[in-house]
């Protein structure tokens, strides 16, 4: 169930249209003999068929589900542990009933059906008002077909769950059907490239269906943690319902049909929780110095006061669980609770500040739907005006400096909440999250190759590095764990320069020695040791989703090789430049021989961070070339005696 707080009890007339529903034990011969998915041959299991059929019964929405899965490999047996989560809350909003399940094995061509008994079905409470039905299928083997069917009822008819056509294993056939009632009007919202181009639709007498076939499995791919934003699916939101009127009989009532109405509903909800109070820390503010010469100084003090004195815990969501008074007592809150509290503090100091609802990356929406659809929002930002300049503010990361916004919230737009004036606004958060690596190579007093290095990361790359260092410290692990281990090298003399709050960068300085190189006739080493792309991250043969680097950035490498006395350069990498069609990424490598020094400069630049899947082959080859170039060695050799 989609979490929402607008529920209706309506008198609805239910009717159903004839449809052919899949049944247990009716797998066809193609399904029985299938041993491999043609478009994904390494899949351990496959969904042969998944089907949903929804109807209205009064003020209850009911969906009948049917799923048929085939196990193709030993590792696919894990999919015989099925879990269905549903939202109970405090009023039994959703319920699951009528569950039937079985394993079907084929012995000498004959089907042997093993029904799942009651002891194989568990209904378990999880968290935040959710329950989970778990099915443990018996006697599952490679080649088994497992199938199950059940009904789920939902009392929330404002937002309908809808249907997701893709799953974590390939899906050969996925169909959703809904029979609408004439007393309710819904907006239908579809998403995904296959939905846009390949969906099969039907519409007959108020019954609508959507079918997709041969869907790739859903899985995280390198540089695409937000793959859910591109999943093929369909959703519904109530826009109007018929209500009785004493004067005109029956009238249509609108439901969140404008951005202003939707925004006012959210503002009312936040107000009821106490977050629009004039000063949310009246008692505590007597002991808190929030003064400053500028609005920015005041806002920074308020930000750090909350960040450093209140615990941030729980799901980042648009709905606070606690009231403001409860938060002030517990001093632990969810991100939205702390941000709304910060909003109140800023407003009490005369600083204009309001919430912005957003759909964060990975929540399931690659782009905002341009009409009032509340379900596309899951988190908030604050938009404040400081000394005449607008700035977005976030409070979800306990290590983030003032002004940093979690990268999952760097989206194209959001809903700016203002009483009777809420509207969509663009979001464009600029930053230079780049990396600069500098090294100087020489021989130490023992005649060993010695590399002094500085690894500096700016803005969000710096914050990521700060988190990695902090994680290592918590685990009591040495800092060399941050770098790729390499034979015959020793890391030492680590020093951290944390200037992330003052100058927006974080630096790790370190030294590397090569003990085996002492007094060698030939010394071979990689001059560019540290890079995110020294190994090609793209090894899969095909790509389902776009490659998302999240933001544009550059990685710059500078290495000065001081030619030791008695040595000369025997070989070094040649100059090279390459890119891919469209200019998404570029790379240059430039060596320069100088007096007693070889200077090497390399630069990788991601210019367009979202690279479509059809460019994957080009990108894979590009990154393979980058990794190869970064691994090319410099070779020093001893001069021969005259």
Automatic annotation (TrEMBL):
<feature type="domain" description="DUF3857">
    <location>
        <begin position="62"/>
        <end position="215"/>
    </location>
</feature>
<dbReference type="Pfam" id="PF12969">
    <property type="entry name" value="DUF3857"/>
</dbReference>
<feature type="signal peptide">
    <location>
        <begin position="1"/>
        <end position="19"/>
    </location>
</feature>
<keyword id="KW-0732">Signal</keyword>
<dbReference type="InterPro" id="IPR024618">
    <property type="entry name" value="DUF3857"/>
</dbReference>
<protein>
    <submittedName>
        <fullName>Uncharacterized protein DUF3857</fullName>
    </submittedName>
</protein>
